[in-house]
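Notes continue from the previous slide.

Worked example: a multi-chain complex. Inputs as given:
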Amino acid sequence: MLEEAQVQTLARLARIALEPAELPSLAAQLSRILSLVEAMEAVDTTGVEPLAHPLEPVPRRRPDAVTETDQRAEFGAVAPAMAEGYYLVPRVIE
Amino acid sequence: MSATDYPRTVAGMSAGLARGAFSSRELVIDCLGRIARDDSALNSFITIVEEQALAHADAADARRRAGQAGPLSGIPYANKDIFCTKGVRTSCASRMLDNFVAPYDATVVTRLAEAGMVMVGKTNMDEFAMGSSNETSYYGPCRNPWDTSCVPGGSSGGSASAVAARLVPFATGTDTGGSIRLPAAYCGISGLKPTYGRISRYGMVAFASSLDQAGPMALTAEDMALTLNAMCGVDPRDGTSADVAAEDFARKLGEPLQGLRVGLPAEFFDASLNPAIATTLQVAIRALEQLGARCVDIQLPTTRHAVPAYYIIASAECSSNLSRYDGVRFGHRCEAPRDLNDLYTRSRAEGFGAEVKRRILMGTYALSTGYYDAYYAKAQQLRRLIRDDFIRAFADVDVIVGPTAPSTAFGVGQKTADPVEMYLSDIYTTAVNLAGLPGLSIPAGFVHGLPVGLQMIGRHFDEATLLQVAHRFQLETDWHQHTPALKD
């Protein structure tokens, strides 16, 4: 079971603003999902190596070579706020 | 030639274009007309690119006159709105990306363009591909053409609905836990999730990177083979795209099924399977036996725990992948942020819908200190056991057959109140993604007027056998030819 305070902590970690009114239903839904997930405990997995990726061995690496061209203008064009080639955010240091 | 006379399959259009029966421009105009006439009842498209499509059709016709046409040149199609398209909005059905126009094309989009295919639009989907019903879309639910009060399945619901309604002969989809196969089953079309790594993920908006895989959605196995030929191949831009030799996926379509060993997992045919679906599948399995296949009872014991393992792994990867939406570099940004944290938290609160937020929070929980071993590590251990179950089974059988979904399409709104009930729609599909195997769904009958899907699972990189079995089945049955009658 997840308490409302735990949901608030998760939302802070995930950088999602929540209204207090959203907490009770979210806590109930997440708790319900956890009760589904906890069925996993029934399986004995002692000594089983976790599988992070369906392709083993690990994916190949590409050569460490510069392949991208300068697309600063294209990527800047989809940003919410830009000035002089930089992303704008609210002041961080007062 | 009147509009209704055009062939509806990729193979039929390809043959007609080759012999000059019609032009790509005529086909594309017909497609756009069908979308204009029928899609208001379906909502299967988010964006339509009429001018671009006509220009590309003209270019394809010019190449054909110059003797440079390939088998797919000039054939119209649609992309799920998860594939980046240069100059055309890629929304992922999220408010977060409502204003996002990618500066580049996904590799899949590039390859299909190189094959000469003509994109007519981008299809509806669950937001960031998180859903089993296409109801989490920011642009409203898509509808099932067999019954517009029902969902088309998700997350690639728009692609399935558009192909089923014969608006386009082919559409791309992506499948993280069943998102190609489930809507293919609900809408009565054919859909293939290839082996993990078969198709480049470059330019495909990421949900759960160790599970996501693109694939074709079409009316026939033959059409899936033809389009898969164009979609796949190693890509230097995706380190997980598999470096395997190119092959022609249509090469085995004509081969008979004599001696084929078909595995029937006890876990897929137990008492929990809907009896009407079980009966429909038994008839389909008998048809395979009459074609020369031999059925073998098998066991996949750990697949019973695939849904919990899947929802932990997918949510964990999603919480990490979606951290990129910060309101700074692209996507939605809230009005008048007070400070940087307010910018992040409010942009994300406004940009993401309820299901996406639930999964991010669940993934954040599963990855947090003190819970990591109990949830994420445990799910990854189950993932290995599930994969090993399949590898063991494939020592004795060539393909595994079962249901795609536990029910036929359900009503819009019927399962939105309880996320767990929605998650259980994926009970037969998620294990395939966890194991990285290829799987497809083809139409195998109807229950109360709604299509039933037959799922087939193959060995890693053995899509050719799956397509062969599906094609032979479709030569003997006509379920894939049934067409929904849309009411005005």
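Summary box: The first strand of chain A starts at residue 82 and ends at 83. Chain A is about 35% helix and 5% strand.
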